[in-house]
Amino acid sequence: MFESFCLLIFHKTVGFLKKIYIYAILEISFIRSWSVLAKENTKKPKNILLIIISVIMAIAVIVTGLNILSVQNLMEKGNTYKKVAYENQLIPEKDENGNWYFTTDGDFKVMHITDVHIGGGFLSKTFDEKALNVVALMVTKEKPDLLIVTGDVAFPVPYTAGTFNNYSGAKAFANLMESLGVYWDVTFGNHDSEAYTYFDREDVAALYGSGEFEHCLFQAGPKDVDGYGNHTIEVKNSKGIITQAMILIDSQAYIEDNIIESIKGTYDNIHVNQVEWYESEIKRLNDENSKTIKAIQGDVNGGLFKDYGTVKTQAFFHIPLVEMDDAWNEFKENDYKDTEDFEYVEGLIGETGRQVCCAYGEDALFEKMLELGSTQAIHNGHDHVNNTTFKYKGITFSYGYSVDYFAYSGIDKLGSQRGCTIITSKPDTTFSIDKYNLYSDRYDLEDFTREEVTMQFEDVTYQVNVE
Questions:
Q1: In terms of domains, do 138 and 264 share one?
Q2: Domain with 177 in it
Q3: Whole-angstrom Cα distance, residue 47 to residue 118?
Q4: Is there a single domain that holds both residue 35 and residue 182?
Q5: What's the domain count of the chain?
Q6: Are residues 207 and 105 in the same domain?
Q7: What is the CA radius of gyration of the chain?
Q8: Pick from 33, 65, 97: which residue ends a domain?
Q9: pLDDT digits (tens, 9 = 90+) for 195-233
Q10: What is the tens place of the pLDDT at every residue in 97-127?
């Protein structure tokens, strides 16, 4: 497995070196022409160029070797963690349509983390190991039925990670989860594939959905719907009634797929056909429950249909909706007091500048959620130091705790933003959200260590002072 992975990276690196070689040949041709026109000796610039090309190629080979070793070390690190000890682990199954579902008459526990940011290169090795360690620590403590990561598993930024290879972070995380033996799923973030990375979204989706990772429930989703990873996971009771469903959506990345938009951070919206897909999924879930309830009680009038006719859902994606920004601004402009539409629950906004980095356009997803009355909560990431939860127009918005150790400068030494969210879905369709900081006593486990950090938001209420 690892050998084939290295071979793949080798071929990608060879392709990259070929580009350098072609560029160098063009450079040589240009300088030769310039030298002839200037009536200068061509040997000296030729020799200099050959030296430059040799140095570039040598550096590329060294960096590739270091990165391959770093990935191997991350894999070995992941293998050192013990399987999580469950008393009775729920095992998912697939229905006739290929959708995953769990069966339980008890509570269903989802652990939500976000923005793990594994660089996967030789420059990020220390940070990557810390990220894997704390994920293993929290998963071991919480023993979730399902772990969901709302994007940015990988962070292959070359000047900080030392690599363009976004497979490395994805592979290291997947390997860790398989070692832990915990069922998991993921939505894509803007950094999971960039314009400059070796692999695009389709490639990474193929990796997650390859079947190589037994506990990975990721599905690429319908081919006629934009993005990768639009899919649903259901929770059913022993009667076959759906009591809760998790809807995972690809929130896209940038308005245009190029490096300039990536640098500018012009984030895209959830597309029209994704909203249409969401609506069709809610209809499918409702129809399935209606059919099941009718088979149990003979009709769909009252009884079980009253509680389960409209399937309750939780939505997971990376980039926050525009409505999250609108809601928080409404709260802020009302002197941090609740309004008719806004109800504060907990947490804060820790970002400065653009405090909620939502999409730059508008989409109809939130309006469709209100119309259909199915989605109880929206869980997202993207803004690493935001962790607030609030209700807006009856729907809960919840920022997940991030893991990130190096995407934000100096964030490895800070701790208020790092932890996880536990979403408990109950058999009667109600749910609860509990957030736990990594550095609380809750995660004082014997086989794990945690670094000393500064809890930077201990004296902050609602949001940091940006005046």
A1: yes
A2: 83-443
A3: 40
A4: no
A5: 2
A6: yes
A7: 24
A8: 65
A9: 999 999 999 999 999 999 999 999 999 999 999 999 999
A10: 899 999 999 999 999 999 999 999 999 999 9
Within a domain: 77: no
Q: Is residue 322 domain-shared with residue 435, that is, in the same domain?
A: yes
Do 60 and 95 reside in the same domain of the chain?
no
Percent of the chain residues past pLDDT 90, beyond the cut: 76
CATH code, domain carrying 179: 3.60.21.10
Query: Which residues, in sequence order, are CB contacts of 334 under 8 Å at separation 6+?
Result: 342
Look-up: residue for tokens 């070359």? 158
Query: Is 25 found in the same domain as 99?
Result: no
Strand, coil or helix: what is 160?
helix
Residues in CB range of 246: below 8 A, 6 or more apart: 110, 146, 148, 185, 232, 233, 234, 235, 313, 314, 315, 316
Is the separation of the CB atoms in 166 and 158 below 8 Å? no
Q: Within 10 A of 371 (CB to CB), how many other CB atoms are there?
A: 11
| C-beta separation of 166 from 129 below 8 A | no
Q: Which residues pair with residue 420 across a beta bridge?
A: 436
Asked whether residue 160 carries a pLDDT value surpassing 80, the answer given is yes
From the centroid of its chain, how far is CA 150? 3
Whole-number Å distance between alpha carbons of 422 and 416: 17
Q: How far is CA 403 from CA 29, 188, 282, 380, in A?
A: 49, 16, 31, 13
Q: What's the token pair of residue 28? A: 């040589």
70 within a domain of the structure (yes/no): no
Q: Is 410 domain-assigned?
A: yes
Nearest-10 Cα torsion for 405, 407, 411, 416? -80
Token couple for 108? 């269903």
What's the CA gap between 389 and 377, in Å, rounded?
10
Rounded to 5 degrees, what are φ and ψ at 219? -135, 140
Higher pLDDT, 282 or 48: 282
To the nearest 10 degrees (0 to 180), the angle between helices 2-37 and 166-180 is 170
d(CA 66, CA 424): 42
pLDDT attached to residue 22: 34
Backbone angles phi, psi at 36, to 5 degrees: -65, -45
d(Cα 452, Cα 106) in Å, to the nearest integer?
Answer: 38
Give the DSSP letter of residue 103. Answer: E
Let me know if residue 466 belongs to a domain. no
145 and 60 fall within a common domain = no
Do 179 and 34 fall into the same domain?
A: no
Residue 27 has which token pair? 């450079």
